[in-house]
Amino acid sequence: MPVVLVDCNNFYASCERVFVPRLRDKPVAVLSNNDGCIIARSDEVKALNIPMGAPYFKHRETLDAVGAHIFSANFELYGDLSRRVMHTLETFCNQMEVYSIDEAFLHVPAQSDLTQLGEAIHQRVARWTGIPVRVGIGATKTLAKAASELAKKTKKRTFVLDERNRTALAQVKVEDVWGIGRRWGARLRRNHITTALHLCGLSDQQARRYMNVIGLRTVYELRGTPCFPLEAQPPTRKSVVHSRSFGEAVSDPATMREVLTTFVSRAAMKLRRDKLAAHMLHVFLLTGHRHKPDARQDAATIHLSQATNYTPWLLQAANAGLHKAWRPNSSYTKAGVLCYGLVPESPTQGHLFFPTDPRHAALMHTLDTINRKAGHDAVVFAAARPQKKPPAWATRCTLRSPRYTTRWEELPTAYA
DNA sequence: TCTGGGGTCCTAGGACCC
DNA sequence: TCTGGGGTCCTAGGACCC
Q1: Which nucleotides of C are covered by protein (CB under 7 A)?
Q2: What 3-state DSSP class applies to A321?
Q3: CB A99 under 7 Å to nucleic chain C
């Protein structure tokens, strides 16, 4: 059964274009949180040789010079459009794995004209959502990924990779193979393995020597032997993280407590959404900048006596963690909370000394319902209430477009 | 001056147990 | 002087993905 990979082109940039059609052939770039890095580029921006993940400040002049349209990340919009794309894709298959916000693997029945199928997918998604997609088809996930890469290279909307054109793998650079990153790519390159076709020809021993078992599985997949099954059910997650870089450094514990209250509230909401409870909460505080040598991490892990997703208990743990991790005279630029040791929220093992109160779950349910309808900050814990609004530590995102599809007050306006 | 956020898996080494 | 073998669990670090 062939594997079909559907990949949205320049997804975030394409989302911005859906509601501002005049940007269709203009350079568009989307920035990461805090407006730090460039995380999505339209073809026009790619043509300027601005790499993915490049710091914005280094390329600002180049972008300004061509009149590029720059956006702060608007994940609420991207998430909603992604959902619409995925619903459209469901109409083509019985089994689908939503692999990321902009990609899905589909299992389709064997059929004579796969190119035509790719074209049909492209057209329906474009018509129903306004998002352009690319389709790669192969015998395994890794081959479907390679096919998608070849589609990009040959400027086709669909690329079918099979026995007959297997040698096209010579056009795929080794570090562009799914599962081969920069490090392994460089290592393979030093040993004269520069394309996907070379990788295919490695012996198992060689593959194992240059990489690890995951690398070996990648080689098998390139040969046409499936090792990575389609995961229609998302596996239960093992951790939930909420972290942010600050717009302005935080150097007093009271403000950090306000920060962590917000972060824990978000993480707890994610836990409840997935019906999970955490046994452990890890608090981490970072000083300096990632790319500077003096960066330091202060952290603490709190073990909870009972797995929970009840925000007040997690807040208690976070405060204890803050107390342990905080080092005086520090100036923190980023912080986060990590919940792990996750178990299903019910049935939770009862605790002899802290019996659960059924009203807790009801309270959290009410809180989540309100915040889902009215926005994350509609109801917050008092400790999260900032002195100033927005607080100085808030993430910078001055260029964010309206959340057209998820907020009533931000609906697009049409003029006749 | 300014460099994101959220995940997974593998491996090696240390602690600990019998 | 001579000091085993097998197992588990945890952690940190490194690799990868989008």
Answers
A1: 11, 14-18
A2: helix
A3: yes
Which tokens sit at A173? Answer: 């650079």
Question: How many angstroms separate the CA atoms of A201 and A214, rounded?
Answer: 16
Q: Which nucleotide is nearest to A187 (CA to C1')?
A: C15
Q: Residues A195, A174: contact at Cβ < 8 Å?
A: yes
Say whether domain A239-384 belongs to CATH 3.20.20.60.
Answer: no
Give the number of other CB atoms < 10 A from CB of residue A218: 25
**CB A301 under 7 Å to nucleic chain C:** yes
- Comparing every residue's Cα with the C1' atom of nucleotide C14, the nearest one is A183
Domain boundaries, chain A: 3-153, 239-384
Token readout for A151 is: 């589609």
Q: How many residues does chain A have?
A: 416
d(CA A22, CA A11): 17
Give the model confidence (pLDDT) of A175-201 as tens digits. 999 999 999 999 999 999 999 999 999
Say what the pLDDT of residue A353 is: 60
The pLDDT of residue A383 is: 84
* Fold (CATH) for A3-153: Alpha-Beta Plaits (3.30.70)
